[in-house]
Write a structure and sequence with these properties.
The protein is α/β, with parallel strands linked by helices and about 260 residues long. It has twelve helices and six strands. Strands 3-2-1-4-5-6 form a six-stranded mixed β-sheet, sandwiched between helices.
């Protein structure tokens, strides 16, 4: 029988436990600071309960966690899947992120208006929060291979598409290359992200229309790397991709 996966609430409790260890505090000491009974903190750590918004602010101040416990708690309270909650932590700790996308602009590169067109407002806001990884002192290396169809698939008004495609070519810090229709490759039906952590560990997120899953299996990682190499070899160069995206904005999405 496969082991039971932790719930998002239990994962958050583990993060609180790690933050306590890093600060050199015990749960009992935190309880004294917050003026709550020790069993309350114990329930937070064990994933049985979550703190009130007022408590989380005091916890952050005491443990010096720079707001990440509060940000993650928002995801827990909205009952996201444990897999997605876990992937958020992977993104935060990654040194390299390589993404292959077949349907829409990768989430980490989406403009607010583009995101709001395909997601509820709350989810769009959360997606913007994820983009904060590019503001780290040492942001992860990021490269995206996107199917050419994404440039032509209308998401919202033409102005939204023009702004979104403009975002793809505005920053050279995040590399975007287009896999053209003419590419002679076996195309993956799934989008995926390959992440390398500071420890050297490699993790992948496979995204389907219904749900995503995380894998660390060496055979899965190897298969994704093989496809990444094949798709990367067939993709346009960064400069050629920028030229194609710019022409698409002018020819298809700019006001005439």
């Amino acid at each position: 029988m496969a082991p039971k996966r932790e719930t998002a609430q239990e994962i958050w409790g583990n993060e609180l436990a790690h933050a306590l260890d890093a600060a050199g505090m015990t749960g009992r000491e935190l309880a004294e600071v917050l003026n709550v009974v020790p069993s309350t903190v114990s329930n937070w750590i064990n994933g049985k309960r979550t703190p009130h918004v007022d408590d989380i602010e005091r916890i952050e101040n005491k443990l010096g966690t720079n707001g990440y416990l509060g940000r993650d708690l928002k995801w827990v309270q909205r009952e996201i899947s444990p897999e997605w909650f876990e992937w958020r932590r992977v993104e935060e700790e990654s040194t390299t992120l390589l993404t292959y996308e077949t349907r829409v602009v990768p989430g980490l590169l989406q403009t607010p208006e583009y995101a709001r067109t395909i997601l509820p407002a709350v989810k769009a806001e959360e997606r913007r929060d994820r983009q904060g990884i590019f503001e780290h002192d040492v942001p992860p290396f990021f490269e995206a291979l996107i199917d050419e169809s994404i440039l032509y698939r209308k998401v919202g008004a033409a102005e939204i598409m023009a702004e979104q495609l403009g975002r793809l070519i505005a920053s050279r810090d995040q590399i975007v290359r287009v896999v053209p229709f003419s590419a002679d490759i076996k195309r993956f039906t799934l989008s995926f992200v390959l992440a390398t952590l500071d420890s050297g560990k490699q993790v992948a997120y496979l995204d389907s229309a219904l749900k995503g899953r995380i894998t660390e299996r060496p055979s899965d990682i190897a298969e994704l790397w093989r496809f990444w190499g094949e798709a990367g070899a067939a993709a346009l160069s960064q400069e050629a991709s920028i030229d194609l995206i710019r022409r698409t904005i002018e020819d298809r999405w700019s006001a005439k």
